[in-house]
Design a protein that fits this description.
This protein has 4 helices and 5 strands. The chain is elongated and about 60 Å long. The strands form 2 sheets. It has a 3-stranded antiparallel beta sheet with strand order 1-4-5. Strands 2-3 form a two-stranded antiparallel ribbon.
């Protein structure tokens, strides 16, 4: 749990900090008060370079996380990654809106007791991780939060 990252749907643009308060951080290094936090590690961005959504979403990544995410997604079939996230969300919507309570209980019982425990744990982790990643993306674009009606 906590290891799913959905690729941001828009290109990210490298931003350089020009007008920010400069200070010395706790390690004695020069840092910048950018007023932004990284959407991956959730720490204040204090470098003079960060990455932001080129389409205007409120999504920012520090230099370190951007590099890690670039490496993570390098060589992946991004269509497949996006499909998996959509599939998990669609399956969840179907289960929650189309199945009655007894059918949902029967499905949960089948998955929890008929599947091998490790496989069930991986399924639960994947569903939780996709939901977490979607929430982070939607929170960062609060004016568009209602656009993902199926998710909510």
């Amino acid at each position: 749990h906590g290891c799913c990252v959905m690729p941001h749907p828009h290109p990210l643009k490298k931003r350089k900090v020009y007008r920010a308060k400069v200070y010395v951080d706790e390690m004695g290094r020069m840092a910048y008060d950018t007023g932004r936090a990284c959407d991956n590690c959730d720490t204040p961005i204090s470098d003079n370079v960060y990455y932001a959504c080129a389409s205007g979403c409120e999504v920012d990544f520090c230099k370190k996380c951007h590099e890690q995410l670039e490496q993570l997604f390098d060589g992946l079939d991004m269509e497949h990654v996006t499909w998996v996230a959509r599939f998990v969300a669609s399956a969840a919507v179907h289960i929650l809106t189309r199945l009655d309570a007894s059918s949902r209980r029967a499905l949960a019982r089948e998955l929890a007791f008929a599947w091998p425990a490790a496989m069930f744990e991986r399924l639960v982790g994947a569903v939780v991780d996709v939901a977490d990643a979607k929430v982070v993306h939607l929170q960062d674009n609060s004016d568009k939060i209602r656009s993902d009606v199926d998710f909510w």
